[in-house]
Amino acid sequence: MDAINQLLIDQPLVTLFAVIATGLLLGNITIKGIQLGSSGVLFTALLAGHLGYTIPGGIGTLGLVLFVYCVGIGAGGRFFASVAREGAMLAKLALVIVSLGGLITWAGAGLLDLPADLAVGIFAGALTSTPALAAATEGLRESGSGVSIGYGIAYPFGVIGVVLFVQVLPRILKHDLEKISAQHDDRDQAEERVETILVECTNQNLFGKRIAESGMANLNACQVSRIFKAGQLVPLSYDDCFSEGLLLLLVGRTKEIAIAIDYIGRRSDRNVLKDVENERQTLLVTDRKLTGRNLRDIAPLKTYGVVVTRITRLGLTFVPNASTVIERNDQLTAVGRSEDLKRFGKAVGHRNNAIDATDLLSLSAGLTLGIVVGLIPIGLPGGTPITLGLAGGPLLVALLLGHFGRVGRIVGHIPRPTRLLLQELGLVFFLANAGIRGGVSLVETVEAYGPLLFGLGILISVVPLIVAWPLARRLFKLDPLQALGGICGGMTSTPALGAITAKTDSQVPVVSYVSAYPVALIVMILIAKVLIGVLG
Q1: Mean pLDDT of 460-489
Q2: Who contacts 378 (Cβ-Cβ below 8 Å, separation ≥6)?
Q3: What is the DSSP letter of 471?
Q4: For residue 191, what pLDDT band results from cuts at 50, 70 and 90?
Q5: Helix axes 59-112, 360-375, angle to 10 degrees
Q6: Is residue 265 helix, strand or coil?
Q7: Helix/strand/coil (H, E, C) string of 383-395?
Q8: At what angle do helices 480-490 and 508-535 cross, to 10 degrees?
Q9: Which residues have C-beta within 8 Å of that of residue 119, sequence separation ≥ 6?
Q10: Quick one: CA torsion of 34, 462, 159, 176, rounded to 10 degrees?
Q11: Distance CA 94, CA 516 (A)
Q12: Element (H, E) at 223
């Protein structure tokens, strides 16, 4: 046992992964359907910090940057549309949460006769705001020794309380997060859903015309991929023509398919085999000769005998038309005979092992740009300039990259398995560091200043949560996923967001989080400065 203890003391890297492993084991324990998940790392890290163990320096910063960057990339595609729909409500929710925390801090400091530095530190810790801590430390300078102590007292429950809140409340209220997530997907993707429909040709004006030259390719987001011949669906060829009763398999978005059905004839209810795997392949475009050209010029059906039915670009799948321009790293779903698919694969420069590859250059450049943006000072009237910090800067850059797809050579896409791995790895690194830091001084600070300070921190964390939930649900009409994500953003609680994302694959809480987070971040910094002035 002494040898293990000495190993952990001498090797902080071993301690780091031991804390993560035991924390994840703890997080996998289920009690009445509730799991801590990745947040279990925080508890084992608190114990490790209290026992005097350390982890390598900078791990928490690395974890925070990775986590928020991956969150931003994942949410960027929906972020700005969400801001347009619910942004004002989420901003108001964040404002209420932070302002209420500030009022409780002011009242508690007056009742307990606390010095400004200690009170502001408790405020920053209870709302888990490192930028507010930095602003308070900078504002108080030499007289601010109590800031870090107050932060250390309130921070552990500030993290744990929100994590437990977002885990327990849906269970108490019997909200099925997966069902709500599915409802969001149905609503958001109703018009974007890609489907396959069998259609019978009854339009006499089309009889005898080549399908490839009939104008079908000009329909937005709809393609003919196969036709019914000799009792089976076969890939479309360039010479195939419309005929009475011909069955065609259409691939497209729901809205566009409805238009195509009216153009061709009527929907068929006949049951036929719709997919033959050796006649369909996903091909990655790497050859620069094809990039920048549209499908009309490339003419894949006439030139190669294949139909491009879908394109996946930066994580988004859509049905192309003749005007669609092919870009490098597009993933083309092509239908055709196996020999034709091989020829087309060579033409686009397809490589099997490159489909799920991550662009490390873009990842590194994006993180670098995000960190730099986070360091840029933003001037405030009559006050000290603030920065977005290592959470706000990478988050902002990732949101923009996720929305626009690319900025120059920097691609705003990380394959989903890689993104989720980096996001989870960043989260456990961040939690391990936060727990180690909080555990070092937790017992000593409580003994030195009494349990009332700990109680004040709990009030600052809990009361905004209790008020924010009914406010979000009843006044702002947010559904449970939006409300939970908005509350996490208003509390600037990255671990709580991690607890939600461990329960559902939906991006709804993530988008709500990143909509509320910037408002909460700025308001926390401003209130920290106001509290220093009022209580000083």
Answers
A1: 89
A2: 385, 386, 387, 388
A3: I
A4: very low
A5: 30
A6: strand
A7: CCCECCHHHHHHH
A8: 30
A9: 105, 106, 108, 109, 150, 531, 535
A10: 30
A11: 6
A12: strand 222-229
- CATH class in words for 192-354: alpha beta
389-398 mean pLDDT = 79
Q: DSSP assignment of 163-192, as one string?
A: HHHHHHHHHHTT--HHHHHHHHHHHHTTTT
Q: pTM (2 decimals)?
A: 0.60
pLDDT confidence band for 363 (50 / 70 / 90): confident
Residues contacting residue 269 through CB under 8 Å, at least 6 positions apart: none
Q: How many CB atoms lie within 10 A of CB 133?
A: 24
Q: Where in the chain are the domains?
A: 192-354
Phi, psi at residue 51, to the nearest 5°?
-80, -5
Can you tell me the distance from the alpha carbon of 348 to that of 284, in angstroms, rounded to the nearest whole number?
Answer: 7
Residue type, 399: L
Burial of 378 (0-12, 13-18, 19+ CB in 10 A): exposed
* Long-range contacts formed by 188-194: CB under 8 A, 24+ apart: 188/78, 190/254, 191/253, 191/254, 191/255, 192/253, 192/318, 193/253, 193/254, 194/251, 194/252, 194/253, 194/310, 194/317, 194/318, 194/319
As given in the structure block, the two tokens for residue 280 are 């369909």
Chain segment 229-286, per-residue pLDDT in tens: 877 888 888 888 899 889 988 887 777 788 888 888 898 888 776 555 567 788 888 7
Cα-to-chain-centroid distance, residue 162:
19
| CA torsion angle 304 308 309 312 (round to 10) | 150
Q: Quick check: 144 pLDDT over 70?
A: no
User: What is the distance between the alpha carbons of residues 454 and 245, in angstroms, rounded to a whole number?
Assistant: 77
Q: How many CB atoms lie within 10 A of CB 275?
A: 12
The residues facing 196 across adjacent strands are 251
519: left (phi over 0), alpha (psi -120 to 50) or beta: alpha
Return the structure tokens found at 419: 């993104």
Which residue, among 410, 431, 416, has the nearest Cα to 498 in the 3D structure? 431
For residues 57-80, average pLDDT: 78
If phi > 0 it is left, if psi is from -120 to 50 it is alpha, else beta; for residue 113 that is: left
361, two tokens: 């250059």
Which residue, chain included where needed, has tokens 């009792």? Answer: 231
Contact assessment for residue 89 and residue 478, using Cβ atoms and an 8 Å cutoff: yes
Distances from the Cα of 223 to the Cα of 53, 199, 216, 217, angstroms: 61, 12, 7, 6
How buried is residue 245: exposed, middle or buried, by Cβ count under 10 Å (0-12/13-18/19+)?
exposed
The per-residue pLDDT for 386 is: 66
Structure-token pair, residue 324: 């669609």
Total residues belonging to the chain: 536
Alpha helices in 51-202 (DSSP H): 59-112, 116-126, 130-140, 145-172, 177-188
Examine the pLDDT at 80 and tell me if it is beyond 70.
no
